[in-house]
Write a structure and sequence with these properties.
Radius of gyration: 21 Å
Number of helices: 18
Strand order of the largest sheet: 3-2-1-4-5-6-7
Strand content: 15-25%
Distance between the termini: 19 Å
CATH architecture of the largest domain: 3-Layer(aba) Sandwich
CATH class of the largest domain: Alpha Beta
Number of strands: 13
CATH superfamily of the largest domain: Glycogen Phosphorylase B
Number of domains: 2
CATH topology of the largest domain: Rossmann fold
Length: 378
Amino acid sequence: MKPKTIFWLVGENSGDLHAELVLAALQKQRPDLIHTGIGGPRMQKHGLKPLYPFERFAVMGFVEVLKHLPFFLRVQKDIKDNFAANKPDLVILVDYPGLNMRIARLASLQGIPVLYFICPQFWAWKQERVHQLRRFTSLVACILPFETPLLASHGVKSQYVGHPIAEEIKLDLDRDSFAKKYGLDPKKKWLGFFPGSRNNEIAKMLPVFLEAAKKWGNQSYELLFSQAANLDKSNYNRILSGFPDSKLITGNNYEMMRYCDLLVCTSGTVTLESAFLGTPLLICYKASLISYLIGRFFVRINRIGLPNIILNKDLLPELIQHDMNPETIFERGNQILCKDELNRKIRNELQQLQSILSDKRSSIEMPKLILELLGDAD
């Protein structure tokens, strides 16, 4: 009997990380399955045969996507031809809705079952995507618990599988060992800055974060700046060169999140990871004026931070666009640092987040769904 084939499409590092958990668990149960498509080094380590270089897909923002449009159109045509010539038994699409929604349509029209892992945030913007999910997917695997009833109300079949960060977050060092590794004073309070994982984010956020950090520089704080592993360290060194009090952290992000007394983070997955670990934080975001105006027109929710959205309350300060400045960061940060009651309230509320996101494990739930859609469930 011919081995069954799964076609994966993962376009970002976070998706590669989340899908790795699933693929690794699936391989243990069914090592005979063939995995092909688009995915990063983590998935390739577990047997994915890539059709394209993964780094070509790391494109964000309206303008950047337009610049790379010919490439994405060519990828879409190649995938359509691939489905016709080598029809897979299942297509798994992970986040990345700009391309993945179009591939869902292609697969569905060719009669291929489609499993969408990490639901597009239709509840925030581009609500029409929920209708595409209903028409072109067999099942949506949600990592946010509130999404399943919303999808059900639109007639979309879905299941909550737990958030991957509940399994991904691991601490390798205690606080003292972390302090020793990076030359930190364990007696001081630590402030952590996460400016982002893309070069365009760093260019906008890091200089502002640095100016805010300088306002704490003459006090008894260690000032930590996280550098994403995929980014050039020279860019950080250039920006931070005039501020010798800063400490560049190039690994152990989860330790940095857990052991800092306050974090200042660019909006994204890092905010949910930090909140999951229970550390108070400020959620910051700044886009180009055009992108910001477009976003304001289309976005349908009042909160941008995933911790606040999941908890359905304005717990963590969100500093957006003009509010994302050194003075406001320093002011709101000091409120959390200096007001014990506020600090305790935030930490207590964040404990709820951990229990909400830990009740299921995607590495357990996803293989079950995959085998069911393949017709191979026990």
